[in-house]
Every structure is written in C-alpha cells, then in structure tokens.
Automatic annotation (TrEMBL):
It is found in: Secreted. InterPro entries: vWF_C/EGF_Fibrillin (IPR052080), VWF_dom (IPR001007). Its main location: secreted. It comes from Trogon melanurus. This is VWCE protein.
Amino acid sequence: PPRTSAPRCWYRGVPRELGARWIEPGCRSCSCQGGQILCEAVSCPVSCSHPLPPPAGGCCPSCSGCLYEGVARVEGDVFSPSDGNCTVCLCLAGNVSCISPECPPGSCPSASPADCCSCQPPKCSFRGHTYAHGARFSLDGDDCTTCICRGGEVECSFAPCPVLDCPQHQQHLGPGQCCFTCRDPPAPAGCFVDDNGVEFPVGQIWSPGDPCELCICQADGSVSCKRTDCVETCPYPIRIPGQCCPDCSAGCTYMGRIFYNNETFPSILDPCLSCICLVR
C-alpha cells in the first residue's frame, strides 16, 4: 500500500487518518494507531434492567424504552403484566417498576382494575369447625396430618418423612413421633479379624503371625496394628525363632554357628587364628 509522510492506515483499500475510529460489521470497533489497525469487540455498558434490543445497524441495547415479557414498551408507558391481576407497571429509562394493591384482611385481588379488592374467599366447615381461608390445622389427635382451607375446600396431607439409611430392624417409631428414626447400633463387643469369625475382646493384644507386628482391638471394634523396627547394636547378633529382634546379649552368630559370651573358637577362614565372642 502507498505510504505518505503522515502515519495513516490503509484498511481494505481505504486510507484512514491517524486516530480515526469506525465500526465494522459484526460490532467490531476499529481505530488507526501509529499506522496500524487495532480492532476489538464493541463494549456495551447497560445501565437499565429491561433495555430494548439494538436497533437495525446498531450494536448496543437501548435504555430509551423497555422490553418486558417480549413486548417493547415506549418510555413512560403504563401497563399491566399478562398475569398481573391489578398489578400496574411503569417503563422509565429502560427500567420496569411494578406495584400491586394491598387488600385488607378477608379480601383478595380481582381481575377488574376498578375494584381490585372485592372478593371474599369462602370459609371451610370441617368436622364441626369453621376455618378461614388459608388457615392451617391438624386433625384431632393426629399431629402427623396437616390440613389447609383453600376457597371452601379442605386439603389434608401427611407429614413427609425422610428416607432412612439404616436396615429395617434398626428403625424405630417413638411416642408422639410421626416418622421412623434409626436406633443407635449396639456397641461392638470385640473385633472380628478374619472370615472364620475369630473375635478378640476389646483391649486384646496379639501378633498376627509376624513377631515384629503387634495389634490391639480398639473400643470401636477396629483393629490397630504397629510394626517394631529393630536396631542391631552388634555385628554378630543371635536370631532367636519367634522373637522379633536379634539378641546381642546372649552371644554371637559366626558362619552359621552360635557361640556364647567369652567362648573361644578357631577361625573357619584361617585355622591358625583364634576368635572369641565378646558381648559389649
């Protein structure tokens, strides 16, 4: 593209002056900066709750009217929503504000804007008692059933009960309760350690076959085991069957033979050498 002394930009064959800004299709804002074209999506700060959609050829919603329930409203329009029953709404600067009449006790809103608080809901007669509309009550002697008076009709329902995660033999219905609850499981009497039913009482200590491992039966029925790490303090300790750690106090093990403290014996490697077992 041809260049001039001024740092202009060329975009699609059209020269753009330095600092020029324009809108491209797809709502992209472009500018000429130092001979380069910089484009970014158009930012639309919206300061109202119910803006109108962008006009033809525009990118940003408009707060000069309101879009409410899919219907465009002009600025200052007063209207009633589709299910409003005497509710009145106002479009103001892209915001919709609605207000409903407050009816005195015993009346209810009607569909007629001229008299919004006209109807008197019928009361309920049930088992010799009269209940006002909306009243909630329980059946005589049955606190687990809740009833409500709605427009002259009584609707009753049982109290919902939670789903229990315990087996049926542990479920319990206490006096005055509407729903079953789970009993606490019996405290464990001991620990089962294998599939053959071997049980150890709480507090029992045993070795499961390895003399360096000790286990104890905890109060909650669990088994806790701990392993003993041996530290050999002499170069030729005696290993005693069934005992966890080698013994350095009884004697020495040399070339597969056991010699006791202060015992003298010839060296197997050199018969002219004499060895002695010293326990230190």
